Amino acid sequence: MAFLSELKQDTQNALKYYRAAYSLVHELRAHETNMLEIKTMAGFINYKICRLCFQHNTPLDAIAQFRKHIDLCKKKIGSAELAFEHSAWMSKQFQSFGELFDEAIKLGLTAIQTQNPGFYYQQAACYSQDRKQMAQQLCQAGTTYPSPDPLDTQSGGLDFYGQRPWRQGHQSIDPTDPEKEKMGILALQIKERDVPHSELIIALLSNAVAQFKKYKCPRMKSHLMVQMGEEYYHAKDYTKALKLLDYVMCDYRTERWWPLLTAILTTALRCAYLMASVKDYIIYCMELLGRASTLKEEQKSRIEKNLFKVLMNKVPEAEAECDPSSVSAARSLWSDRMALSGSNELTVEMQDYIPFIQCKARFQSPSFHVDQPIQLQVFLRADCPHPVSFTKLSVSLSNQEYNQWCVVEPSGPETRTLSPWKPESYSFSFVARTEDVGRKVEITGVEVMLGSDGGRCVFLSWRGAGGDAASTQEALQASRSSRRWGRGAEARQEPDWDGVTLQHSTMIISRVPKISVQLSHQPPALSNEMYRIGLTVQSQEDAVARDVRLTAGLKPGQEAGLGQNTHVTLDGSAVCDDSAPALLTEVPLGDLKPGEQLQTCVFVRCVSTGPRVFLFHVAYSIDTAVEGRRIVCRCHKDETVAVETVVPFDVSVKFVSTKFEPLEQVAVDVPFLLMTDVLSSSPWPLLLSSSQLQLLTVTSNTPQLQSQLQQVVLQTGEGASECFCLRVPPGASSNSTMATGQYILSWRRKCYGSDGPLIQTTVPLPHVVLESVPLYIYADLPSFGRVRESLPVRYHIENRTAQLQEVEIAVDPSDAFMFSGLKQVRLRVLPGTEQALLYNFYPLMAGYQTLPQLSLSLPHCPTASGTALRRFLPQRIFVKPQGRQADDASIAAA
Amino acid sequence: MKCFNYPLYIRSVPSQNELKFHYTVHTSLDVVEEKVSAVGKSIGDQRELYLGLLYPTEDYKVYGYVTNSKVKFVIVVDSSNTSLRDNEIRSMFRKLHNSFTDVMCNPFYNPGDPIQSKAFNGIVSGMMVQTG
């Protein structure tokens, strides 16, 4: 029915019918005789159900159905003699389900890590293994195949699947013919013996491996590969077995799961033995003897003996649990191998294994001075139960020339022996070459030779400074525990193995200099000055320091722009220019006898402000002896100094009118004042040597412009001012800005004395805005007046325009003065000419008095107001009190 | 039974087939790692320590538990043993974890060394006897 539905493509119905059929099959009375039949039927139907479930995209149903099926059938073993048949059937079930699952996945089903075909393949393989075991147990009886063949049916096929061929047609449950039954079972057993179990298992396992690889189960994969390896071993395909085992051993080694690793190694060792593969045998022996192996002591000692037999070129004893027939084959293989004389040298790279000899090499210090011998220690420890002797220990270093000093080759017959668990240390020392100063010397490898030239020798070679696949983790553990128990370990006499850390490289550094370098200077530096740094080199050497050289200047590796802003020179007599370098290199200073002292000065010019670091590097050569060898060492001493550069002084410039009122605009052809203020901000006294005004377009009102700051010394915070009277020449266009020139100061630090060069600091003067006035008025008056003495004042009115100007002038009365002259006047000034007005003021009071004010107005020229003109006129005058000549005379008389 | 990707402590009650259990526990780490990394991405720190049934085999059930410091505990029980429900397993893990914490609190214990504590051993034995 179901089959019909399926043919009709009515899969839902088909599934229903199949389910019914399945339960019917299980309702049948099961007995030993028809068990196989029932199981076969159930298997078919189950297969159909599962397949349909997958087709319906209900994988969970399929899996549940399969589980139910397996649970139901698991116990139905059938006849004990044919138990292998049951296992085979189970295996088949799992395999076909796995295949179904896999197919479904190919059609778009997604599987997960914990539910994928791999598990079913694995289980199938597992049952296959069971089958093999049972077959081995059960199928030893029959030696001859019974005849006539009970499995041979006349019809050439069976009526129903799963029926015993010799029982065809019988319906009753009891066996009809016990003799025939026995024959049949025997025939089946013999047939079973011919089945290539291992191949089946391996095929299933490799299927499973492929699945697990897909579903990210690396450990599951390794486990299965171990099983495959073991199966190959059983199948006597040792090469393949070793290949697989070797592959997974690394995984287990990194996982640090020692019991498992040991188990694998044991199998691998057996393979190697049976193959008589010397190298593999030795490697597995060494690892099984090592600390990672969980084997018992007596097993270890047996393996060690075997290992030494191999090293002596003898045949090792057979491994336990080996097939006797293969052992004899292996033995002959071994003796053949041993008879071969060549190729008895073997190098084994240790860092991939966990061998029974541990090695740790270290330099005594991370760096050695070139005049010290370099000390190197190699620690060896054997983890095996018996003492091991080795014939040679050699260390190879990155510079081949040193290798000759790093070999221990025991002279005579006695060999170096490593007692179990007792660390031995071997020390080497050698002298570094002077060319290697500043270079690193690294341990590239350590080699221990086991065995002798006569027998077989094995070079155990560690890359770098020793250590193997497990030692990094151990070192980590050790560092954790030593943090707690560090003090206890130091007290112990014996070197603590775990506490020995690797030091695989050392730096050869130059000899410690025995000179002192002292710097004397007065920070901070002032910008642009020739900053003097005194350098004193004092020799404390016992011999002559030859070829002393100085490198001085800006320390490399600072801010990028500093190199252009810093100049270093040895010549302090003149200000250096920009071509001077930032770093003076290799300045020869001659030789220095013991105890002698050498002095020199370096001058630094810092253009910009800010911090700088200067480096003083004094290098020299000296002859010295190390362990009897004479060498020439170059030593050097570095001294650095950080110097801040500051501005020495601030210069401020302002323009004022002749009345000392600040000016925003400068009138053309009217005198004005330029005030300069120099404020010292240097912590050291400054000597201002002179100042100079370089004028552009503006002319000086004083014919001989002289500096008012000759040889002035400024302390910190003090200021110096200058005042210049200037005038913009007529003809300059109004309302424009104009450059006025620059102000130059020459100065130096006072403490540098007269030998220090003068530094010129140039301050650009601000630009001025020009204005032109139509009418200029100025007063000619004495610098002071006296009470009740006449004070003649002459006002000049100048017409600067091309037109005739009419001016109205009135004089306002003042309390402090009486005056004579024109009180109110109206006059005309011709273009380019001037008019003078003379007044006689007569002061009445002493002190600063306001002059009678002239009020001007220009009726024809509204742009120039009277007040604008008034700023040119003096406002006040100092009036001295009346002299007392009479009293003075009387005093003189008295 | 538990591990740090290398075992700190392993015990099994029928000791004859120990190697097989080693393999079982070792392979279960695949699933543990997968679960831990999946959880770490989604929820962050709020992680359930108990991972539940890791994977079913024909004969055994493997349960996993991971502490916040990524110490893994794995319990393998016979799949025919139906008396052990999820809750029991959970409480076993909690007990194990507590005991493990005690071990770690021992100032003489160096983290990463194999556990040799008698108290821990006692707890494990007790649990094994109890489950039979």
From TrEMBL, chain B:
Belongs to the TRAPP small subunits family. Sedlin subfamily. This is Trafficking protein particle complex subunit 2-like protein. One of its GO terms (biological process) is endoplasmic reticulum to Golgi vesicle-mediated transport. It comes from Cyprinodon variegatus (Sheepshead minnow). PANTHER family: TRAFFICKING PROTEIN PARTICLE COMPLEX SUBUNIT 2 (PTHR12403). It comes from the Eukaryota. The keyword Lipid biosynthesis does not apply. Keywords: ER-Golgi transport, Transport. One of its GO terms (cellular component) is perinuclear region of cytoplasm. Gene3D superfamilies: 3.30.450.70. It holds the Pfam family Sedlin_N. It is found in: Cytoplasm, Perinuclear region.
